[in-house]
Amino acid sequence: MEYASDIRAEYDDLRREYYDSQKDKSFVSLGKARSKKMKTDWDNVKIVKPTFLGTKVYKEYDLASLIEYIDWDPFFISW
Length: 79
What we know:
mainly alpha, 42% helix, 0% strand
């Protein structure tokens, strides 16, 4: 029971610190935030067309040469 009460007290402190830090923040209204949104003129933006679309297959590539560059952590974490 002592462990649970220690955790509860720690979380109470964390919660209090978080809410105290929120008091000093000033927020703008939703209308003002929307009026300051990023404006993009898509008609004047030059978008580069990719050299190919879809999946590119490398038939003559030795996949064993890639093994040292693979980060296996996400695989092991999910298992």
